[in-house]
Amino acid sequence: MARTNARPDARPDPDDRADRDDRGDDRADRADRADRADRADRQAERTPYRIRPSRLPLLWAVPGAAVSFALALSFLVYDGYGVWTMVLAGIAALPCYLAAIRTHLAGHVVGDRHGVTTRSALWSVRRFRWKDVERIEIRPTTFGRKVAVVLRKGKGQYVLAAPRRTLFAGSPNSRRSSTR
C-alpha cells in the first residue's frame, strides 16, 4: 500500500479534472460562476459608485473655526494695537473653515453610467457627463491631495468633494490614506 501525506478527511484537489468530469460538476460550476459574474456586472452597472471625504480633517477644521470665531470677536475683550487686524483675519478665515467642515460632513461624489455628480461646500452640486470629461487627475496641494475633473474643450476644471486628503494626509500607499 502506497503511503501519502494527504489527510484522510482532506478535500480532493479542485484542479483534478478526472474526479470532476465524471460527475459533470465542472461545466455546472463554470456556468454558475459565469451567471454570478453576469449578475454582479448588471448590479454594478445599476449601482452608482458613491464616495465621501474623510472625516479626519475635522481634527483641524473645527478648532480652526473656533479660533477664527474667537478672533472675529476679539474686539470685545482686547482693546489694543492690531485688534482690527485680528477681527478681519477671523472674519476672513471663518467662512473657509465652515466650508471645509461642511464639505467633510455632507460632501460626496457619485459616479454612475451617466457621469459624475459632486456635492461640496455649502449647496454646490455639479454634474458632469462622461462625454464632457477629458480626464480625472490627482492634484498635490500644500497639505494633501485633491481629485479634479478636467472637462473637454477648455470648459474648466473642478475639484471634487472626495476623495480628498488634507493636512493629516498620509502617503498614497499607506492604509490610513486609503479611501473609506
Description of the molecule:
The chain is an alpha+beta fold. It is 38% helix and 24% strand. It has helices at 17-23, 25-46, 58-72, 83-106, and strands at residues 49-51, 108-111, 115-119, 125-129, 133-141, 144-151, 157-165. The strands form 2 sheets. A 4-stranded antiparallel sheet has the order 1-2-3-4. Strands 5-6-7 form a 3-stranded antiparallel sheet, with no helix packed on it. Strand 3 and strand 4 (125-129) form a beta hairpin. Helix 3 (58-72) runs antiparallel to helix 4 (83-106). The protein is elongated. The model is unreliable at 175-180 (pLDDT under 50).
- Could you estimate the helical fraction of the residues in percent? 25-40%
Q: N- to C-terminal separation?
A: 56 Å
Q: How many extended strands?
A: 7
Enumerate how many helices there are, as a single number: 4
Structural class comes to: alpha+beta
**For the report, how would you describe the main beta sheet?**
4 strands, antiparallel
Q: Spell the H/E element sequence.
A: HHEHHEEEEEE
Low-confidence stretches: 175-180
Which radius of gyration do the C-alpha atoms yield? 27 Å
**What's the overall geometry?**
elongated
Strand order of the largest sheet: 1-2-3-4
Beta-strand content:
15-25%
Average pLDDT figure: 76
